[in-house]
Design goal:
Length: 527
């Protein structure tokens, strides 16, 4: 996938300088960005300005433009010396906008000859009632646990029903499990860390059964709603926290990610979602699924809040500035074709987000993924599922043996698949994963991130045919398994759209670079 066919070096530099000058209100530089002469046009929803002098006079009296974040940058060639650039932006107040510019090159210099700016209100948030498809323990007049003073004071946390909350039982998405579960005497370590930073636990949110699903559909509690796409699934297994945050019923979702259970609902519900480096956040007090891959994660609507919540959970880490973005074409090809151009534009915008401060990154770099055998990504995914399901059976075999009819047929089948894996098959799969883990870590030294789609499509409709739903799930798991098998931190950013539906742009970094991801995203991406 090429990223610079229509946005060559000189034009890229000129566009970045325009962004810097706009945010700095550098009027002389902005005057230079617009072509001189009487035919240059600049218009918005309220007025049309004709000629360089009229545009310059408007700009000089405006007092600066509001801060905004580049979301997507599309370019189209109109010939050897003309390009159209269409950029979607988001302001700090949530308002989204489109700027469309015609750039022409004269005497070797690019300048804007036509510009149109428009703004629109953000999508309306669909309220969702506090029902059993979101909450296992619904919010009441008082928090389940109140935090103290700190950077998260008054933030409301929806806790996935896998974490211990003192005074409550853990339900793990299954009524039989809940009926056997004791009342927890103390909070899970991750819950306690958020409380210590000032957050309040507002309720316990539902999860897919034993966290072994990606759909957000629980046979016992129903289909968790998607507040931003009511006809679609929310994604799992951190479905309840995602729905609560997307609906504005909570500010932070505390969840887990084994094979994508933070990144998938973040993508489908238009949220920021952080999968932390495997092992860096204490999992004490958490009902796990596959210990080699389980990790704690967070969901928010705002990247600044995500960074503060991450600081509460994560240990101190060295922060390496992100200086390089790489893309693997075979991963992009797993994305629905209708979303590939938005993905390309979102990655392009990602490298240009620092233009306002003069910190433009190089264009995205296409890289091949090197697989340890000729089976490619399919073989790696099969190996991942082999080890994951074997560990899942080992983790819960006693419960499953004692209660063989407790699970829905679909989830029970996944556990049985793990039961039937022999030691030689598992050892071979583990060897393949070990080699692939080393390759991914080699590809991603500190300062480099891999950009890929968080999911293979936008959220599927609830009434999607089962065969198609399974195909979407399989493609998504091929995307999400890479960070999981390598124990890497991954951040899903709500940067893509397929029609009106969100899709996440995922950034994967070196182990222990969680803070680097959060710093990179929050520096230019707050909303």
């Amino acid at each position: 996938m090429s990223f610079d066919d229509d946005l060559d070096g000189d034009l890229r530099t000129a566009f970045a300088e325009y962004e810097r000058a706009l945010m700095a209100n550098d009027v002389p530089a902005l005057d230079t960005a617009f072509a001189d002469g009487p035919r240059t046009v600049r218009c918005d929803s309220g007025d049309m300005l004709i000629g360089h002098d009229a545009i310059a006079a408007f700009r000089a009296g405006r007092g600066g433009a509001p801060a905004r974040t580049l979301l997507r940058v599309h370019t189209r060639s109109l010939g050897p010396d003309a390009r159209v650039i269409v950029a979607q932006t988001r302001r700090a107040d949530g308002l989204c906008g489109i700027q469309t510019q015609v750039w022409e090159r004269t005497d070797g210099r690019w300048a804007i000859t036509v510009a149109h700016v428009s703004a629109a209100p953000p999508p309306a948030n669909t309220p969702t009632s506090s029902d059993a498809s979101i909450w296992r323990v619904a919010p009441g007049s008082e928090p389940l646990a109140r935090g103290g003073d700190g950077p998260l004071v008054n933030a409301r946390v929806a806790v996935k029903d896998l974490f211990a909350v003192a005074g409550q039982a853990i339900g793990a998405g299954n009524p039989v499990w809940l009926s056997k579960a004791p009342i927890e005497p103390r909070h899970a370590a991750a819950v306690q860390a958020l409380l210590a930073a000032g957050a309040d636990v507002t309720g316990i949110a539902v999860t897919d059964e034993l966290a072994f699903s990606l759909s957000g559909a629980n046979a016992h509690y129903g289909v968790t709603p998607n507040p931003v796409a009511p006809q679609c699934i929310s994604g799992g297994s951190s479905s309840g926290p995602a729905a609560a945050v997307a609906a504005g019923l909570a500010d932070i979702g505390l969840g887990t990610d084994t094979a994508g259970s933070i990144r998938v609902p973040a993508s489908y519900c238009g949220l920021y979602g952080l999968r932390t480096t495997h092992g860096v956040v204490d999992r004490t007090g958490l009902v796990g699924l596959a210990p080699s891959f389980d990790t704690v994660g967070l969901l928010t609507r705002d990247v600044g809040l995500l960074a503060r919540a991450g600081a509460a959970l994560l240990p101190p880490q060295s922060v390496e500035p992100i200086a390089r973005v790489v893309v693997a074409t075979e991963l992009v090809e797993l994305l629905d074709p209708s979303a590939r151009e938005p993905f390309r534009a979102a990655v392009q915008a990602l490298t240009l987000r620092g233009a306002a401060s003069g910190t433009v990154l190089p264009p995205p770099v296409p890289v091949p993924l090197t697989y340890p055998d000729s089976g490619g990504l399919d073989a790696v995914f099969t190996a991942f599922r082999t080890v994951q399901t074997a560990e899942a059976w080992e983790t819960h075999r006693e419960f499953l043996a004692a209660h063989p009819d407790a699970l829905s047929p679909e989830v029970a089948a996944r556990f049985r698949a793990g039961r039937d894996i022999d030691s030689a098959t598992r050892q071979s799969a583990q060897s393949l994963l070990d080699t692939m883990r080393a390759e991914l870590r080699r590809l991603l030294p500190p300062g480099t991130v891999l950009a890929l789609p968080s999911t293979s499509s936008a959220a599927p409709r609830r009434d999607t045919a089962p065969a198609l739903m399974e195909s979407i799930r399989q493609a998504t798991l091929r995307l999400t398994c890479l960070a999981s098998l390598a124990g890497l931190p991954a951040l899903s950013i709500p940067a893509l759209r397929a029609g009106t539906l969100p899709i996440g742009l995922c950034l994967v970094a070196a182990p222990g670079q969680d803070h680097s991801l959060l710093t990179f995203a929050s520096a230019h991406g707050s909303r």
